[in-house]
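It is time I had a proper look at our fold encoding. Can you supply me with one protein entry, sequence and fold together? It will help me judge whether the discrete encoding reads sensibly. Leave the record below and I will have a look:
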Amino acid sequence: MRLYTLSKRHFVLVFVVFFICFGLTVFIGIAGPSVIESTAVTATLNNLKMRPFKLNSKPLSTYNQQLWLTCMIQLDQPDESSFKTNVTMTVKIRGVEENGSSSFINKQVYNRTRMLNCAQKCSEIIVVHLGYLTYTQYEVIVGFEDLNKLIYPIKNVNFTWKTYNPSFSQVEIWFRFVFVVLTFMVTCLFAHSLRKFSMRDWGIEQKWMSILLPLLLLYNDPFFPLSFLVNSWFPGMLDDLFQSVFLCALLLFWLCVYHGIRVQGERKCLTFYFPKFFIVGLLWLACVTLGIWQTVNELHDPTYQFRVDTGNFQGMKIFFLVVATVYILYLLFLIVRACSELRNMPYVDLRLKFLTALTFVVLVISIVILYLRFGARVLQDNFVAELSTHYQNSAEFLSFYGLLNFYLYTLAFVYSPSKNALYESQLKDNPAFSMLNDSDDDVIYGSDYEEMPLQNGQAIRAKYKEESDSD
């Protein structure tokens, strides 16, 4: 591995380049367009008698991607007062074609009950969410049945249309394309560097990188432009599936590396891989179930939210948190065991320190981004429908994609064979000479040729170089 040939100065340079690349994407995102484009519609007190409210969206294109209609009720209430109440609303949705013809979506009226939570001001209610756009314009008719029963008089009813900014959609297309091309190049270079070595000689990190890099290619989604060419839910579902598979594979990579680096001999499927696949598989199943659940219900009912099905959703959320807690505890256990048993082993402690340091940096940055983006509302009951409406700028999108891409690029560089790995592999069984292409077990448990004198190894290396030059 190139990891063994790097000096302290090289390690510092690797981290500096990582931070420069990540910071560059963040600055580009800050200078980029806003993610959400909003259009406000206000119904004053004099217009409350003209219910239901008839609201028309602006003309839309596929670059708008999705559509939300939210409602915020302003009450004439004292600042210190707070209350909660249920509000019943009826919703009709009509789609308008380019030729001016219109038709009701699913040909029915949706009746929904929403919780109105008012403190200093009332919380925002999501009325409608359309995951993909099949019409150029939408007309939504909203009626409230219980507004006159509120304990405080109503000042205004504010509706807001929210869509993706078309300029952001273009930025997203280009950056996904750039990351797809970069990932393809890194994958090809990494595979090319390993082509002369048998898989038996690959370290566990190199084996996993050969899996993660193709999955990173899918995570960047080369099929993403289909969502702008086809009016269907399938491209969006495909993107969610690719992201969940890659992220769960990354979680599995951490478990396998921290455990496998201290396991001697063959790693059996039942005892080594099965527990890890089981834990991560449950996390993947929970994520995919939530995504499919939301998508399928919204196809039949654009007013659907998880709050409507609170019991099942709360059970799924508790299940996800329990499995995530088990994963974190298991990973911490493996890290502590690996560091305590292998901290004095030559070269192995270097692998542990580098992977732990870089992964820790990535996790800290991810947590900071999540907190800045969602705050304490990440696990609200209706968080799935609201996630995409809380982007503030392109930096929050680019930071996630850039962080994971540059993390994998850095690992691929460090875990790739060095320039001298080919002739060093001739001395593979002697840890005194071969640090560049050792398998895991050779590094930890030594070899059969520990007594080989130094001059013999140098003679073999010189002989190999002479043969290479003569060829």
User: Anything to note?
Assistant: DSSP finds 13 helices and nine strands in the chain.
